[in-house]
Amino acid sequence: MKGRGLTPAHQGYRYQDIFTAYFFMRCLSERYEYISVDKKRFDGDIFDDLHIQQGLLTRHFQVKSSRNETKQFHHSQLYRKSSDIRIDLLFDSFLKSDSKEDLYILCATWLPPVETKYLRETRTCKSIENTSSW
Length: 134
Prior knowledge:
Blueprint: H1 7-11, H2 14-26, E1 34-37, E2 50-54, E3 57-64, H3 87-95, E4 103-108
């Protein structure tokens, strides 16, 4: 039987790696006081994929992806016991943080939910392209 190496385990981290590499590249032109990858700040920290401190602001990112390109977000992911993005876990990470001024960003490759009653359109949209204004 031929070994498969790290390929299956690494597949789930592809988007996280690309996302992190993007901010490392931005690091060349912007001043970051601190950047860390895959580091829990405390036991149970959900936002542990990427931390960037720039000035007084620290951004904490959690990146989620699925090999299933048709996977859609469903609000039950926020309360299902088996979910790793349960709303109580997300809030615990915020409440245990040192600073309540920080930004906590959950990034996902999932498609929008079918049920639109849980969606709200906002006039301002922050994206990776304009994060320097955060």
